[in-house]
Amino acid sequence: MTLLDALREHLSLTGTKKGCDQGQCGACTCHVDGERVLSCLTLAAQVEGRQVTTIEGIAGEDGTLHAVQKAFLEQDAFQCGYCTPGQIMSAVACIREGHAGSDAEIREYMSGNLCRCGAYNSIVAAVREAAASVSKAASKAVKEKVEAA
Ligand code: FES
Ligand code: FES
Q1: Ligand 2 site, residue 120, Cβ cutoff 6 A
Q2: Residue 143: pLDDT band by 50, 70, 90 thresholds?
Q3: Which of 48, 106, 117, 126 could bond 75 through an S-S bridge, CB–CB 3.0 to 4.6 Å?
Q4: Tens of pLDDT along 39-84?
């Protein structure tokens, strides 16, 4: 059984979407040990004992939205929303991987996530905005640490 089917059919975690079911659209993207994977191409057995994060687990425990979720809302980066969970999971990883330095880089590293509605410009804008806010938050945390030392 694939990780995608295990999530959706057995764990009722339906935020992860099934698009092509053959590794070509990115709708099923989730994270395993912090790295993005296509859950339709991953066997559930392969992730035994590993940390799986889906779109349901990306916000803070108190419900505070992740910077990428906020940016998608602010930039109106979706229409039908079907590709959105996969886009967000990829975007979180893309920023963490350090591949959100320019629009061209964002487009390249988000290219595995298709959007049939064509919301690409807003998606790139959202990733750019989230990357800037994550880096601002990181600099602030470093500054606070330095000041506290
Ligand atoms: S559903 Fe997995 S890549 Fe399309
Ligand atoms: S918002 Fe509809 S497929 Fe992307």
Answers
A1: no
A2: confident
A3: 126
A4: 999 999 999 999 999 999 999 999 999 999 999 999 999 999 999 9
Instruction: Tell me how far CA of residue 140 lies from CA of 64, 80, 98, 101, 136, in angstroms.
Output: 19, 36, 18, 19, 6
Q: Please, which residues have CB within 8 angstroms of residue 55's CB and are 6 or more apart in sequence?
A: 15, 16, 30, 85, 88, 89
Would you state the pLDDT for residue 137?
A: 80
pLDDT surpassing 90 at residue 134: no
83 lines ligand 2 (CB under 6 A): yes
Please tell us whether the domain made up of 3-148 is placed in CATH 3.10.180.10: no
Atom of ligand 2 nearest to the CA of 87: 4
What is the Å distance from ligand 1's center to 30 Cα?
A: 11
pLDDT digits (tens, 9 = 90+) for 16-43: 999 999 999 999 999 999 999 999 999 9
Find the ligand nearest to 83 CA: 2
Atom of ligand 1 nearest to the CA of 20: 4
